[in-house]
């Protein structure tokens, strides 16, 4: 793949998804035309399967957690909370969620209050201090260029030139907060997964972002798309998705620089399925953006 812009950062994150609604969708009788790669032997009875014998990921899932993306500085060098630290962190998060929205200035409509938010109240079950697992310090390893881009994004956030849509970031325009971003806080952190023979479809509640993932082994197309062009295959009980062909929008504003799309960006997702009503989402974003694991 051509690298048309230098990387801003590369990091890896763990997000545990919990099924919020068990949805059983009847599949077609025909076997899916999917590509499979060898994996460690697994008992097919260990996980639910579709009628065409693919692992069944279907359902409504939530990624909500108060575990921060980056490790807080006060926990530097500490990979996991102690039970006492986790309990304190959760109490403090709940206190911050109390509605303290000030009255808007005269002539302004104000902003969201807590009625509109769907905040989580717990850290990850393993009590990690950050979603980022690589690098080990739990922080985004911005390049010098990435640091400048991130500083500019944060300085502009919420302070755009509102006389034009060009002064708004992509989230304010309700377009996206970054394709492939896994939402874990705020609101609309839900995902619904549908399957049919040869395809997996993921619908993100926030912005109604839709990913249709062919599993037929076909090559990527060359048409840039804001959501990229996805291709998937099964490795044992894990769905592996490779996404590329993102467009170039250098003038767009983003909430964070690492969320931005660029032609050099590449996303690799791994969605293993577990029995306990949860799954970890593994995502690697190349081209200088991020990785979720």
Estimate the mean pLDDT confidence.
Answer: 77
Shape: globular
State the separation between the terminal residues, measured CA to CA. Answer: 22 Å
Helical residues, percent: under 10%
* Range of strand content: 15-25%
Low-confidence stretches: 1-7, 19-36, 38-42, 287-293
SS-derived structural category: mainly beta
Cα gyration radius (Å) = 20 Å
Main pleated-sheet profile = 11 strands, mixed
Helix run count: 2
- SSE order in H/E notation? EEEEHEHEEEEEEEE
Count the beta strands.
13
- Quaternary state of this entry equals single chain
Give a written overview of the molecule.
The protein is mainly beta. The protein has 2 helices and 13 strands, in the order E-E-E-E-H-E-H-E-E-E-E-E-E-E-E. The strands form 2 sheets. Strands 2, 3, 4, 6, 7, 8, 9, 10, 11, 12 and 13 form an 11-stranded mixed sheet that branches. The longest helix has 14 residues, at 83-96. It starts with 11 loop residues before the first strand and ends with a strand.
In short:
This protein is mainly beta and 293 residues long.
Distinctive features:
293 residues; mainly beta; eleven-stranded mixed beta sheet; two-stranded antiparallel ribbon; 2 helices; disordered N terminus
Set down the secondary structure blueprint.
Blueprint: E1 12-13, E2 15-21, E3 36-37, E4 59-62, H1 83-96, E5 132-134, H2 144-156, E6 190-196, E7 199-204, E8 210-214, E9 229-235, E10 238-244, E11 266-272, E12 278-286, E13 291-292
Parallel strand pairs: 3-9
Antiparallel strand pairs: 1-5, 2-4, 2-12, 4-6, 6-7, 7-8, 9-10, 10-11, 11-12, 12-13
């Amino acid at each position: 793949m051509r690298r048309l812009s230098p990387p801003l950062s590369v990091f890896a994150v763990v997000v545990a998804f919990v099924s919020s609604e068990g949805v059983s969708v009847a599949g077609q009788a025909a076997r899916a035309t999917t590509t499979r790669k060898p994996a460690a032997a697994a008992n097919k009875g260990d996980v639910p399967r579709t009628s065409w014998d693919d692992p069944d990921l279907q359902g409504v899932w939530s990624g909500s957690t108060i575990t921060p993306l980056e490790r807080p500085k006060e926990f530097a060098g500490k990979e996991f909370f102690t039970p006492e630290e986790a309990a304190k962190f959760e109490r403090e998060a709940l206190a911050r969620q109390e509605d303290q929205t000030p009255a808007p200035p005269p002539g302004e409509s104000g902003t969201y209050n807590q009625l509109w938010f769907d905040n989580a109240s717990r850290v990850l079950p393993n009590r990690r201090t950050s979603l980022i697992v690589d690098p080990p310090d739990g922080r985004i390893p911005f390049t010098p260029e990435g640091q400048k881009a991130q500083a500019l994004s944060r300085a502009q956030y919420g302070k755009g030139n509102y006389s034009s849509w060009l002064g708004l970031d992509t989230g304010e325009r309700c377009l996206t907060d970054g394709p492939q971003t896994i939402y874990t806080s705020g609101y609309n952190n839900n995902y619904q997964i549908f399957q049919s023979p040869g395809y997996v479809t993921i619908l993100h509640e926030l912005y109604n972002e839709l990913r249709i993932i062919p599993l037929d082994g076909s090559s990527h197309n060359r048409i840039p798309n804001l959501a990229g062009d996805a291709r998937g295959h099964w490795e044992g009980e894990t769905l592996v998705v490779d996404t590329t062909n993102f467009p170039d929008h250098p003038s767009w504003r983003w909430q964070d620089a690492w969320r931005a799309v660029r032609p050099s960006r590449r996303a690799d997702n791994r969605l293993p399925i577990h029995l306990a009503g949860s799954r970890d989402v593994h995502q690697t974003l190349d081209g200088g953006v991020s990785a979720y694991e």
